[in-house]
Amino acid sequence: MYREEFIQLAGGAYGSNEDYEDWSGRDKYDNFWAFFLDRDFGWVGSVYANVPIENLYRHGHSIEHVIPKSVLETQLKNRGQSRSVIKGARTNPFNLLAAGARLNSTRSSFEFDTEGDQPVRPGRIPINPNAVGTTGLDVEREWVIPSRSRGDVARCVLYMILVYELDGLYEEDLAVLRRWAWVDEPSAWELAYNEWVSGRLGIRNPLITGDIERLKGMLQDDSLFNAALLPAPPMLERADTPRSGGLENGYALLIGGVEDTWRDMVGAPHMMLRVGTGLHSWRVAINVRSKHNQSVDPDPNFPGNDLLVHVDENWQHPLADQLGDKFPQPGLHFLSHSGESGALDYIRGNLFAPQDMEIIPSDVPGADNDLFERLEDILKRARARSALVYLFGEPFADGRGLHQVHMNQGSVIDDYKETDGVWQDGGLLIHFQDVDRWTAVFMAFQSQCWHTDDQTGAANEDNRCSRFSEGEDDQAAPVPGVSEGALVRIVSAMVNPRGSEVGAESVTLINLGEDTVDLEGWVLMDRQKRTEPLTGQLAANEARTFVLTGNDARLGNKGGLISLLDKQGLKVHGVSYTRQQGRKEGVPVVFLN
Fold first, then answer.
1. Does residue 222 or residue 182 have the better pLDDT?
2. H or E, element range at 379
3. Helix (H, G, I), strand (E, B) or coil at 579
4. Spatial CB neighbours of 574, under 8 Å, sequence gap ≥ 6
5. CATH at residue 553
6. In the listed set 478, 509, 536, which residue is the last one of a domain according to the structure?
7. Under a CB-based contact definition with an 8 Å cutoff, are residues 388 and 332 in contact?
8. Whole-angstrom Cα distance, residue 129 to residue 526?
9. How many domains would you assign to the chain?
10. Is residue 387 located within the same domain as residue 270?
């Protein structure tokens, strides 16, 4: 059987929304809700718990969309479907199941668990003791449902996928859904509901049938379901240069819109979000605290669990100019480990001034004072304004989402050293297109080093590592990026001089320290890693302009990076400038950090 035959058996794709919009409340009751509330069918159970519907009715009964309305609308909208079809899908009665009102609001738009995991939060379900142990959220915030309801859910989802051609929706779960529909055969209430809907609206779900052999024949028919499968995104090679270690499942950029956010407090706390990309919905886990347990695994190099964070509400960087051109479509994009691919590297990419990072606790009493709240505020605004989010990190093993959205190099804790690498740092960038402004969030663990090997990303053991220093009260305070000449700063650059640029580009340095710094062996490095040697000394509080010869480092007019390295090759300071800044002829670019 092919999809077209299935749709014909179903009576077509329900799209009577013009009628639905004109129906009175009584009409809607008669054609949708009456079946669930009719005492003749009082033995119908809630899809999420073994609770009879007559009990649910007394405690706040409602009807739940199995595939959330917002997901359906996004999927069909991206397929170019008409508004009547979109609204028809949202009101299709075969996408509805009985539930409890408060449970509905708790479930929100979370996916169903298809791994058979155990619920870990049954206490959040305020129905009755029968629900405990049968349903709830698993560690991935997916809904674990009772075995008695799995066939009901499977037949709903499979019907909607086939009738509305929702290519890619639940594609990873199709095998599980087909199995659920096989082992949990249609119940008496499903059969009755199918006939009830058919009599009123002229549509039916062909998978709800008393002919079990026919049902199993459809479920075994690969030709019926292959059309609902999309190929998995290609897994690119993890490395384009010889490296040791690296993120196990590769490195990627996920682009889309924020659909939902929630806190995951199981194990190491994470800020969770769901990102929609049209045909897919991806799960993202953002660390808000280190999971390292000093009491179980003591490590003298571990300074604390709270993260180093930098939030820039008006982030300007040449990468922001390039992302839209490099990645015009939303989705998951695998990146090579190089600056040209669009990858992030906190040390080599001059994304921000590391000394501007601050330690932010994950979750403390009070308002606007922890990392959960900072992220929730930013993501809430992104969702409300339909901003595009750009998330960098490692894909999950199943390819359905992303994690490691933080610095991924310079680890000094043994458990994490094998994942070190260059040009593979995680981060969150948000483009508010309505005002063409970028917000950036960069995070690192306090136990990560800010001088790393250029090939492996491993912590550089030949220097002081520059992770933290002693504060006034002997508490560890973050001072990332410290080297011998840490107080020498790049303050401005003549990127686009008038006339010939050869021999006219320049960079101005200032020594903010109390001692003279010998610049012998120091270099300025451009985006292409071309270096311009420096000579002489820089006295305390002295500023000096160094003219580039044009034979070595060069400053492009379309955005660029400038890094200052000491005689050991360690980064002292780094800045970036955008395409817009580079266009201004004869005007120096001034750097404030």
1. 182
2. helix 371-384
3. helix
4. 350, 490, 561, 562, 563, 564
5. 2.60.40.1260
6. 478
7. no
8. 65
9. 3
10. yes
Do residues 513 and 453 share a domain? no
Instruction: Say whether both 429 and 566 belong to one domain.
Output: no
- Cα(579)–Cα(583) distance, integer angstroms: 6
Q: List pLDDT tens digits, range 503-541.
A: 899 999 999 988 899 999 999 999 888 999 999 999 999
**Beta-bridge partners for 459:** 452
Q: What angle do CA 94, 128, 57 make, to 5 degrees?
A: 50
Nearest Cα to 178, choosing from 231, 145, 218, 227?
Answer: 218
Burial class of 256 by CB neighbour count within 10 A (0 to 12, 13 to 18, 19+): buried
**Is residue 235 one of the residues assigned to a domain?**
no
- Strand 281-287 to strand 401-403: parallel, antiparallel, or no bridges (unpaired)? parallel
The pLDDT score that the predictor gives to residue 120 is 65
Q: By residue range, what is the domain housing residue 303?
A: 252-478
Residues 460 and 559 placed together within one structural domain of the fold: no
User: 268-274 long-range contacts, Cβ below 8 Å, gap at least 24?
Assistant: 269/362, 269/363, 269/372, 270/403, 271/371, 271/372, 271/375, 271/376, 271/379, 272/141, 273/379, 274/109
Q: Residue 264 corresponds to which tokens in the numbers above?
A: 């995951």
Examine residue 558 and state whether it is found in any structural domain, yes or no.
yes
Antiparallel, parallel or unpaired: β 388-395 and 427-432? antiparallel
User: Could you tell me if 123 and 201 lie in one domain?
Assistant: yes
Q: How far is CA 124 from CA 80, 110, 136, 147, 189, in A?
A: 39, 15, 8, 20, 28
Which residues partner with 344 through β-bridges?
Answer: none
Is 536 found in the same domain as 434?
no
pLDDT digits 0-9 by tens, 355-413: 889 999 998 887 878 999 999 999 999 999 999 999 999 998 767 789 999 999 999 88
- Shared domain check, 359 and 285: yes
